[in-house]
Amino acid sequence: MKAGIIGGTGKMGRLFTPVFERAGYEVLVSGRSTTLTNTGLAEQCDLVIVSVPIHDTIRVIKEISPVLTKDQVLCDFTSLKTGPVAAMLRSDAQVIGLHPLFGPTVQSLRRQTIIVCPARAEEHIVVSLLDLFSREGAQCTLTTPEHHDRMMAVVQGLTHFVTLCMADSVRRLGIDIESTRAFTSPVYQLELSLVGRLLSQDPSLYADILQENPYVPEVLSVCTSSAENLAGIVATKDTGRFREFFLTNSEHLGAYCDEGMKTTDALIEYMVNR
């Protein structure tokens, strides 16, 4: 069995190459620097995975679709699923959308989440792929492309938007990050670490996540409305309204508030004692 990763010379491709090799596949890769073309790879592999930037994914799928047959399996690693899965379904191949919810810097797939969107695939093929990832320690979530994108608008879109806003606010205020170190609380250090982690990566990835997901604008509209509401409460020094705002959200999160406290306590303890 041969598995082919288009974009396999990239970081995510290099992470998954040994995963498929350990499962018994011969792995072929194509990329900008390889002599093997995308189409050449697609013609000879049983399993074809498209692992390229979001804005290139549908173009690459269209490029290789004419050579694919019903006996092959076509997947992608894109952070969006609706558009890429629809494009893959226009081929003759069996189709399973994939989204690894982690970056290529992880040491292994252990306890990492992979979203799986079976769109047109025989059950035994889906099961074998799930088993492959499970043997590596990953946790798989099955869903539809549409539901995936709605969830990602919050899980990724809202999270990255708020993180970028924090970074931009610090810049606009003219705050020198180094000067804040003498005043750093553990929580501020955690938040700043998330900002630094995001800004150390490729801006085009986050542009695609925020701009290409059709459900992100609605989420960001709610976020900005919430920020305006809270800013108004703070400006008027209305303690009653602030308490209501605070407790309403606390009740919505429910038991996760205690879980979040335990998780951050553990992280803070590690940071202090490392």
Give the helices and strands as they follow along the chain: EHEHEHEHEEHEHHHHHHH
> What best-fitting shape do the alpha-carbon axes yield?
elongated
Domain module tally: 2
* Average pLDDT number: 96
Give your account of this protein's structure.
The chain has 274 residues and is an alpha/beta fold. It folds into two domains: 2-143, 3-Layer(aba) Sandwich (Rossmann fold); 147-235. 58% of the residues lie in helices and 14% in strands. A seven-stranded mixed β-sheet has the order 2-1-3-4-5-6-7, sandwiched between helices. Helix 5 (123-135) links the parallel strand 6 (113-120) and strand 7 (139-142). Helix 3 (54-64) runs parallel beside helix 4 (82-88) and helix 6 packs across helix 10 (216-235). The model has no long low-confidence stretch (mean pLDDT 96).
What's the helix and strand layout?
Blueprint lengths: L1 E5 L4 H12 L3 E5 L7 H7 L2 E4 L3 H11 L8 E4 L5 H7 L5 E7 L12 E8 L2 H13 L3 E4 L2 H28 L4 H4 L5 H14 L3 H10 L3 H20 L3 H15 L2 H18 L1
Parallel strand pairs: 1-2, 1-3, 3-4, 4-5, 6-7
Antiparallel strand pairs: 5-6
Task: Supply the key terms.
12 helices; elongated; alpha/beta; 2 domains; 274 residues; Rossmann fold; 7 strands
What is the gist of this entry?
The protein has twelve helices and seven strands. The chain has helices at residues 11-22, 38-44, 54-64, 82-88, 123-135, 145-172, 177-180, 186-199, 203-212, 216-235, 239-253, 256-273; strands at 2-6, 26-30, 47-50, 73-76, 94-100, 113-120, 139-142. The longest helix is centred in the middle third of the chain and has 28 residues, at 145-172.
